[in-house]
Structure formats: structure tokens, C-alpha cells
Amino acid sequence: MTELVLPNDTNTLNNLMGGRLMHWMDVVSAISAQKHSNRIVVTASADNISFRNPIQLGDVVTLTAKVTRAFNSSMEVYIEVFAENIPSGTKFKSHSAFFTFVAVDQGGRPIDVPELVPETAEEKELFEGALRRRQLRLVLAKRMKPEDATELKSIFD
Ligand SMILES: CC(C)(COP(=O)(O)OP(=O)(O)OC[C@H]1O[C@@H](n2cnc3c(N)ncnc32)[C@H](O)[C@@H]1OP(=O)(O)O)[C@@H](O)C(=O)NCCC(=O)NCCS
Q1: Average pLDDT in the 4-11 region?
Q2: pTM of the entire structure?
Q3: Distances (CA, A) of 80 to 63, 87, 96, 97, 107
Q4: Which of 27, 47, 74 most suits a substitution to test ligand 1, by most atoms within 8 Å of the C-beta?
Q5: Which domains does the chain have, with CATH numbers?
């Protein structure tokens, strides 16, 4: 997904507003989760996001999103954000983040999604790490007991 940073997207320093960028991240990752599941999806959580360098008015922002792993009804999506200033020829990776979406039926109830089979080395690495990240976010959301987080034993023991 590609966006041009326009005046209405910026703060008073002429930098892209973080909230606008998070909105674009939500949209691109929701589309990715919809494509995997062929379902309506809702955002369940967004992992921590840090903005190190500002993105400026007039920059072109490119967001990529891919489902890294599907669990039962939930899917983890990996988002990468790049900013490019075309006149000056500069481009940098702004940040990356993981969002979780849940596929739901027309009544808003979670519904199972197809499994995801990773193929490339990068996809396999993201797939492997997804279980650990899922457990961490569920513990932090108080939806899993720390003692049940099998992948996090070294942190909680
Ligand atoms: C996300 C939501 C559908 C979960 O519904 P629920 O009745 O709590 O369902 P369950 O407890 O059965 O959990 C369903 C899935 O959501 C996942 N989930 C729930 N809360 C989560 C969280 N904070 N982070 C990550 N995953 C979460 C569960 O792990 C489970 O995944 P699985 O099916 O792959 O194992 C529900 O909380 C909801 O509709 N939230 C609002 C979503 C929304 O409106 N988002 C936009 C912002 S307002």
C-alpha cells in the first residue's frame, strides 16, 4: 500500500502524525488478514510500535503486510513501513510491527481460519517466532496465565 504524506496527515512540525500512520498500518494488515481468511476480520491487538525517525510532508510511504501465522481464529500480521523522498532520492525503513486480527462471522463471533504454510526462510523464521509473540501478548493482555506460556519459560521462571 502506498500513500503520499499530505498536509492533512501531518503535525505542526510538518511530520506525519503517528496516529495516521497507525491507521494505514491497521488498514494494510487487515486487508492481508482478510485475504488469508476470506473473512471479516477485527483488530485484536497491535504490538509495541516505536517511531525512530520522522516521516515528512511530501514523502511517499510504502507499507507491506503479510500473515506470518494463523492459529485458530486469529492471525498474526507482520507490517513493514518504508518512507521515500522521491526528489532527493532518499529512502529508509521507518519501522515494523506485528498486529493480530481475529476472523469473525456476521455476528462478530470468532471463526476458524485456514492454516498458513511458510515457504521461504524468512517466512519460516516469522512463523516460528509467532507462537512466542502470541503467548507474550496474551499474557500481557491477561488472556493467558504466565505458567501456561510454554515458549516464555525463560522469562517467567
Ligand atoms: C478480538 C475478539 C473478537 C475476541 O473475541 P473473544 O470472544 O474474546 O474470543 P476468544 O477469547 O475466543 O479469542 C478469540 C481469538 O482472539 C485472540 N485474542 C483475543 N484477545 C487478543 C489479544 N488482546 N491479542 C491477541 N489475540 C487476542 C485469542 O487468542 C483467540 O485466538 P485463537 O482463536 O487463534 O486461539 C473480541 O475481543 C473483539 O471483538 N474485540 C474488539 C475488536 C475490535 O473491535 N477491534 C477494533 C478496535 S475498536
Answers
A1: 98
A2: 0.96
A3: 6, 22, 4, 7, 32
A4: 74
A5: 2-116 (3.10.129.10)
